[in-house]
Amino acid sequence: MAITLYELAGRDASRPFSPHCWKVRLALRHKGLDFETATAGFTEIPGLEGGFSKTVPILKDGDTLVADSFAIAEYLETAYPDRPTLFGGEGGHALSRFVESWTQRVIHPALARFAALDIHDGLSEPDQAYFRSSREKAFGTSLETFVADRAERVEPFLKSLEPLRAIVGKQAFLGGESPLFADYIVFGAFQWARVSSPFRFLPANDPVTAWFERCLALHGGEGKKVPAAA
Question: Mind telling me which residue stretches traverse the membrane in this protein (predicted)?
Answer without folding.
Answer: none
